[in-house]
Amino acid sequence: MSEVPAAEPPTDGVALDDPATARALRGLRLPLVTLPVAAAVFGVPAILLSGLASALLTIAALAFVIGTLIVIATTGFWIGPATKLLRTRPWRPARVRVYRALKGLPRTPLRLREPDGTTVDLLAPALSWSAQQVLARTGAVWIVGPDERGWAAIRSPGLALPLGQARVADIDVGAGYQISPVQASPRSATTAAEDAVLARAIAGPRRRSRTDLVAPALLLAFAVFVLVDLLRRGVAGRAELLVGLIAATALIVGLLAWRVHRLRHWGTVQRLLSAGPWTRVPATLAEDRATAEVKLPDGRTATVRFHRPSQALLANIAATGQLWTAGPPAEGPVAVGLPGYPFLAVARIG
């Protein structure tokens, strides 16, 4: 099994001193504030209004209330104890085995073994498939805690799971079905497009880029039909209706154009990922984190400009001094990522 170097948390200070940990904690706190506010924003007008508007606002408010309850169930009771742990204790490395998630509220059983031989069984709620695969493939994890009530925080290599919730299990996790990685060596795939973790991570957005064309295309066809019919009948006394219809048609055309752009983007991504296997390139990330200097195979130095890269991808480049491209690096557009991780960006070399 050939595992690529990836970002790891520092273990020589308290966990929250690590910028990636602090950023992840802020991200987990945010829904606990925004979802209840959104529920109130829609709920209060729903009480004051009546009719269809009240019904629509009530549905929206209930959706945010349900979202709030889900976030509280998965994160709300953990966030306080975890913050205390992260402020006072360091990350500790451990080996991990991953087991099939339990029925009901998704909770993934984990069995950790620390360097001193201590074994800790945990249940991690809402652990993504990508994070499960990274943990199962690498067998590596970092932990803070548990505290006296069993709360703990975990982190995977490479920031596939920058900060995860966990609690000491009240069951024998070893009695479950152990998860095996679907791809033991992603860097050995014939092309980067065959990287199993990345392929699954982008499958949803790629599929939506096609299905999202349907609604605006149908709306445009209907708008054009109505517009042509109106013009045939004459516009006398209907100027306001005509102007409104033209404006609505223009908006639909803009929406359709944006959806077509997204479809073409994913077509370009697929073409770039099919250029060849993951290729390692020495790289130095610039201070502004918008570009990097890379050394090409012919010895030349070139600048890489990223288009909307994730913070996790940039953190891995900074930590390892390596950039991974789909196929041999050459001037022009290129897909960049990290073999076996759900990170992808389009960049331009030169």
Automatic annotation (TrEMBL):
Protein keywords: Membrane, Transmembrane, Transmembrane helix
Instruction: Specify the superkingdom.
Output: Bacteria
Transmembrane segments annotated in the record for this chain: 30-49, 55-79, 213-235, 241-258
What name does this protein carry? Answer: Uncharacterized protein
